[in-house]
Amino acid sequence: MPEPRVITFSRNVFLPLTTVCHNRCGYCCFRTSVQPGCLMAQEEVEKTLLNGAALGCTEALFTFGERPEEEPGFPEMIRAVGYATILDYCEAMCKKSIGYGILPHTNAGVLTYEEMEHLRPFNASMGLMLETTAEIPSHATSIGKSPDVRLAMMEDAGKLKIPFTTGLLLGIGETMADREDSLFAIRDLHKRYGHIQEIIIQNFCPKPGTPLERQPVPSTDEICATIRMAKDILPDDIAIQIPPNLIDAASLIPCGVDDLGGVSPLTIDYVNPEHPWPAFEELKRIVGNAVLRERLCIYPRYIERGWYHSDLQPLINRLSQTVQQRSGGP
Q1: Is 26 helix (H, G, I), strand (E, B) or coil?
Q2: Which of 44, 92, 102, 259 is the most exposed place for a label (fewest CB within 10 A)?
Q3: Domain ranges, residue 56
Q4: CA distance 223 to 269
């Protein structure tokens, strides 16, 4: 009798340290200018981590706008709270997260090799959405969305042996051929370094007041076709993830989905705040006859390979046992 299919997810908290961003993407409502409230206060970070730990969260997703120091007024703001840069603040909050018993995963936009090397000891994994290898109008005013720049960072992450998450954003002006090119680029990087643990197939959600507010959204059939294409192109050890709050996830599970990503019992999806997370019980309905299993933000094979700083080992070991007990499986 064949083994039951397993669909995984992680229990997380979402911590947007700042909404200030140097990019100007045509579909984004996350970005703000420098203003009161654009920097998440340390007290709020710690409160979220404390409450998240009490709810059994194992992943702290730290994210923020790309290169906020290049925006007028932000350098003064970050220095006023005692840090030289947003990355210094991120490092300090990652250490807090570890102290509260939650593994950090940082997605901070494009970082240099040296910046990732500096953050690596305090993160179990890291990520950057490739989005697309195509040059599209909605990225025309976003230097950090250059495909070459993003692929270079992903390659550096491989050189550093960082378990990595990337993905495609569907419906922002790319074609199906562009998606195929993007998947081949990810495949080639993984063949060289073996560090891509999961790829998100994420649909664009139009936001009022943005240049793409009337852009047609990808249909379920189109998303399914992209998932199937990813399955054909990518090695089997790269998990295919979809966001269960943005699409009809139940109808896409048969297309080849392996993972439902980070789902929070506490925090909202700050990038798509109009789309609430499904409850954990709802995830069981979404996966249908498959087995729903909780995981950490670092996948088991990277734990076995030791692709993490030794200081994280006690927490990784403890949380690995926790998710195994909750999921009733290895």
Answers
A1: coil
A2: 44
A3: 6-327
A4: 20
